[in-house]
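Why does residue order matter? Because the sequence determines the fold. Keep that principle in mind as you read this record.
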Amino acid sequence: MLKINKNKLPTKKSKNKKIKKIERKLADYQKYGNLPTIQILIIIKYKLRHYYKKVKIKNENILDVIDFYSYPLDSCPICGAKNCARFIGCYEREVIDEEGNYYKDFPIPRFLCQGKGKNKLVNHKTFSLLHYHLVPYWKYSIPFIIKVLKARHIDGMALDIMLNYIDDFTTNDQYYVELSLSRFFSFQHLIEEAIAKIMANGYYPEINPQLQSPRKNQQIKAFLKFALEFYCYKLNCPIRGPCALSVDFYLRGGSYLLNSHFLFGTPSQFRR
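Structure:
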């Protein structure tokens, strides 16, 4: 805690200096924890399980694990300056991967903008790198969500069976992932939002007629089929599937260079 000596009666000038000094110390005291941050989508060549094992179990350097596989951060996403962003550690969040494995402390790297650039893209101080399999503020990963929805909308699994479906591919004996009906509908709503984003931006005209079906179930089914077969060729090595569609959408929007929206979910910089 920061302490103020109340025994002395400071002058107005010295008082203002002390206040400013305290404010600077308080900023240092609270820094990183409460600073406004933005989220950047990053492509990592490791699946969530392998990424976690390397960073948390093998204690490998997280920056070496990321390796900026898809596209390097040539400039600070916040101010645009070269050699500005500084790694300040990780925060941890809950994650459920595509097999149903639960991680209570999945590491997310975080960086501080040192303000070297003059033209700030956003009014934030830090940014974090979100694995491209993840959804902002969701513990359920994109592959997990798509897997569940595919079972219902493409494979035709009944809803009552859907509620127990997760047991079939959960491999972590230490945690049981409960799939409630409300959670299943929240998955569908996430896809409906993704469809709306695609329609609004017009990036994939080949799928637009199917996404305009008057029946929501048909829209979701068309989206799932499109996403499962989608290839993204904009990277050093092409990737396939729903996560590839997410990356392609992000890159078409300008990626971190233009503070692009995410296809799945809403990153912190666009939340109110």
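Strands lie at 37-42, 86-96, 102-112, 126-131, 231-232, 239-240.
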